[in-house]
């Protein structure tokens, strides 16, 4: 039984001798446990230790202290003795966490509207996109530059950037419009597109980089084309053809290339005016054409030479039972 014990006795000389003994039971020491198998990152270290109540410490590394620091992967073991001379031992496997390869979101890419593309990577932590999202992957459908930063399990930061260009977007196309019958619309061909196809093609002429559109009735055109990325585009364009009675109509462009289409510039009307005069000037203010006969048209020549570019015109006319009107505008001569 644990406690303090003492004894006294008289020796042969009559002297009294005594002694005391304390008996204690040693508390049960916790088993040696180095922890679960684990891994460390490059440059990191791991602390292994045993309880201070143990003695006769013997590590597989040769060390004899209660604590050791390790910086390499491998298998480590220890033996230790408790107060009752019981020998305990434990071991632990320490692995190495390899550094992630450089982050790669892929090469810059193109998509066609309305498609989308998935950007992202896996195996990292703490994802941060410039879009504000924090998921491994994001869906992208707009042109832009996208970048991602993330960490591996060793807290090393990785990043990459990718550019996405979206094609097949309708832009710079004309809006639906109305024109007078027997008139022509000049539409600049939008840049960045190729292989145009008009349905129907009647009344449509390509002159250089401009379309000359002359429908004789209300027409809904379908324009089919593709852009520089190879993305197909379809555009519906409606033209309302009106009978502009008792008024003058003057085109905005013509092409005097002698192909029989839009070769002449002049005024048109469904009724003969009582008064009529049309004048055309070049950019330097020189009068290049003048007539008082509505049937007379300009052939696009000045001093015997074909011209091109933009010209200013002024028309003064009077219809029956109407006041005298004067209108101004510009016309593009396309060769």
What does this 3D model show about the protein?
The protein has 335 residues and is mainly beta. Helix content is 0%, strand content 50%. It has no helices and 28 strands. It has strands spanning 3-10, 16-23, 38-41, 46-49, 55-59, 67-70, 74-81, 87-97, 109-112, 117-120, 125-129, 137-140, 144-151, 157-167, 177-180, 185-188, 193-199, 204-207, 210-213, 219-227, 232-242, 253-254, 275-281, 287-291, 301-302, 305-306, 309-318, 325-333. Strands 22-28-27-23-24 form a five-stranded mixed β-sheet, with no helix packed on it. The chain has a four-stranded mixed β-sheet with strand order 3-8-7-5, with no helix packed on it. A four-stranded mixed β-sheet has the order 9-14-13-11, with no helix packed on it. The chain starts with a strand and ends with a strand. The model has no long low-confidence stretch (mean pLDDT 86).
What would the keywords be for this entry?
335 residues, mainly beta, 5-stranded mixed beta sheet, 4-stranded mixed beta sheet
Can you summarize this structure?
Helix content is 0%, strand content 50%. The chain is an all-beta fold. It has a five-stranded mixed beta sheet, with no helix packed on it. The protein has a four-stranded mixed beta sheet with strand order 3-8-7-5, with no helix packed on it. A four-stranded mixed beta sheet has the order 9-14-13-11, with no helix packed on it.
């Amino acid at each position: 039984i644990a406690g303090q014990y003492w004894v006294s006795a008289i020796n042969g000389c009559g002297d009294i001798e005594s002694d005391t003994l304390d008996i204690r039971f040693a508390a049960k020491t916790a088993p040696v446990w180095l922890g679960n198998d684990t891994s460390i990152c490059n440059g990191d270290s791991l602390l292994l230790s045993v309880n201070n109540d143990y003695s006769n410490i013997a590590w597989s590394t040769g060390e004899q202290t209660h604590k050791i620091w390790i910086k390499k992967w491998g298998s480590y073991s220890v033996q230790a003795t408790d107060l009752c001379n019981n020998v305990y031992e434990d071991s632990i496997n320490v692995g190495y966490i390899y550094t992630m390869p450089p982050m790669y979101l892929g090469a810059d890419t193109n998509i066609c509207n309305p498609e989308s593309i998935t950007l992202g990577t896996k195996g990292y932590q703490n994802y941060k996109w410039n879009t504000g999202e924090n998921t491994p992957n994001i869906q992208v459908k707009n042109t832009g530059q996208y970048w991602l930063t993330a960490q591996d399990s060793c807290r090393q930061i990785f990043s990459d950037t990718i550019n996405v260009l979206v094609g097949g977007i309708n832009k710079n196309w004309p809006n639906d419009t109305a024109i007078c019958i027997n008139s022509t619309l000049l539409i600049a061909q939008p840049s960045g597109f190729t292989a145009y196809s008009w349905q129907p093609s009647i009344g449509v002429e390509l002159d250089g980089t401009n379309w000359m559109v002359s429908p004789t009735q209300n027409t809904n055109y379908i324009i089919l084309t593709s852009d520089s990325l190879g993305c197909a585009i379809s555009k519906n364009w409606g033209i309302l053809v009106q009978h502009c009675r008792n008024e003058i109509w003057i085109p905005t462009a013509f092409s005097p290339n002698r192909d029989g289409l839009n070769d002449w510039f002049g005024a048109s009307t469904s009724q003969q005016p009582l008064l009529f005069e049309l004048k055309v000037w070049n950019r330097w203010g020189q009068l290049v054409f003048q007539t008082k006969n509505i049937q007379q048209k300009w052939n696009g020549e000045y001093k015997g030479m074909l011209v091109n570019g933009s010209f200013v015109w002024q028309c003064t006319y009077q219809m029956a039972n109407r006041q005298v009107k004067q209108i101004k505008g510009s016309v593009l001569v396309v060769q």
